Amino acid sequence: MNALWLMLGTLTRIPVPPPKKVDPRVAGWSLALAPVGGALLASLLIVPWWLVGGLGVGSPPFVVAVLAVGALAALTRAMHLDGLADTADGLGSGRSGEAALAIMKQSDIGPFGVATLLFTLLLQVAALAQLLAIGPQLAAATLLAALVVSRFMLALLGTNAFPPARRDGLGHAVAASVTPALLALATAVAAGLVAAGLAATIGYGDLGNSWSGGDSNDTLLRLALGAGAGLLTGLWIAVTARKRFGGVTGDVYGAVVETTATTVLVVVAIASY
Q: Residue 262 and residue 159: Cα distance in Å, rounded?
């Protein structure tokens, strides 16, 4: 339970009791459970869609997409977006090591951070609006996959393959806390959540109401393509940061989450066009 409270309290703004203790074991379990946090966030966005669709009320896809992306930022305290902006400033500076880390630690956001935030949010809104226009079923399944897969990347970053760049902060607190067994658990949890979400949305769509969104086999292939592309993109960001900064930080964790989720949404939207 300490790991669950730590995960929810860190990755969401859902009010939960503080963990009674935090040690490497608790940190490792919290990262392994991160995909569950992604699924919970997705459900908080998908349930209103389901209620509106069940009532037979139509909604403009672009407006719904903007509201969904804004709500997601609020539910996560915009923490991952902040990490994305700081990481973009650090990488965009052209500097390495401590010089780049010093830029990332500044309270203001530089031009690289602003441009990256704008580009990422526009991509998220555009991709989600396109998916909603095709069918809420496809949009729901893709959003769930994007949030679960992106949070799975936190477990990967918590292995000893990604040492901390600083001797303090979130990156140091959770460094090497995810064992191979916990990484395998996170993989199984993420795959199971995506599969369950797909089965649920496909099953609901098969009832023949307004949530219908396409052939289940096609949806599965698109999600697999998007998830694979998202994992590769997030891994590329993490490896690049490790090389430039000498390790990863909490900001890099946030950047990997946002880039992974965005890639999943964009690739599935393009594949479904």
A: 23
Contact 266, 127 (CB under 8 A): yes
CB of 201 within 8 A of CB of 211? yes
Phi, psi of 22 (to 5 degrees): -130, 115
Percentage of the chain beyond pLDDT 90 is: 76
Q: What is the pTM of this model?
A: 0.93
Task: Supply 31's token pair.
Answer: 């990262």
> Exposed, middle or buried: residue 181 (CB in 10 Å: 0-12, 13-18, 19+)?
exposed
Amino acid in position 204: Y
Can you tell me whether residue 32 is helix, strand or coil?
helix
Q: Which helix (H) or strand (E) holds 161?
A: none
CA 29 to chain centre: 18
Q: How far apart are CA 152 and CA 34, in angstroms?
A: 6
How large is the average pLDDT for residues 42-53?
84
Cα 108 from Cα 148, distance rounded (Å): 30
Distance, in Å, from the CA atom of 197 to the CA atom of 215, rounded to the nearest integer, reads: 15
CB-based contact 218:212 (threshold 8 Å): no
Q: Which two tokens stand for residue 144?
A: 């769930």
Both tokens of residue 10?
Answer: 């860190």
Tokens of 62: 């672009």
